[in-house]
């Protein structure tokens, strides 16, 4: 009886062992994939961060219906933009709440899905 169980155990471990070794053999590869996925994740986060451009300007008008704010902004070197007056769409119309014409603002721009530069953050300075 003991011998039978021992044989069973040996058979079982023999049956289990190859996949276990195979799995262990895969582990380093998977670990590398995990690392590169992590690195890719970090890179895409960094890209997202570098794709946000900081700027400052003065609000000329706030247009909640259009979801835009008209700003005379200073040069944005990272985009090679000179200073100009233009309408910016905002990522979320609620961002326009409380903004007033004449306020100096600090804002971030990022390209939206349609390729326009939209305001992703806007903060009045010195409030
Ligand atoms: Cu502009």
From TrEMBL:
Transmembrane segments: none annotated. The keyword Signal applies. The keyword Metal-binding does not apply. Keywords: Signal. Coiled coil: none annotated. Pfam families: CusF_Ec. InterPro entries: CusF_Ec, CusF_sf. Residues 1-22 form the signal peptide. This is Cation transporter.
């Amino acid at each position: 009886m003991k011998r039978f169980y021992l044989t069973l155990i040996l058979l079982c471990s023999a049956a289990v062992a190859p996949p276990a070794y195979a799995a262990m053999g895969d582990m380093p590869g998977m670990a590398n994939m995990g690392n590169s996925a992590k690195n890719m994740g970090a890179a895409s986060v960094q890209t997202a961060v570098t794709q946000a451009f900081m700027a400052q300007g003065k609000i000329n008008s706030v247009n909640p219906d259009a979801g835009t704010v008209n700003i005379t902004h200073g040069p944005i070197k990272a985009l090679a933009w000179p200073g100009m007056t233009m309408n910016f769409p905002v990522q979320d119309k609620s961002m326009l709440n409380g903004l007033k014409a004449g306020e100096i603002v600090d804002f971030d721009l990022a390209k939206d899905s349609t390729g326009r530069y939209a305001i992703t953050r806007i903060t009045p300075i010195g409030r």
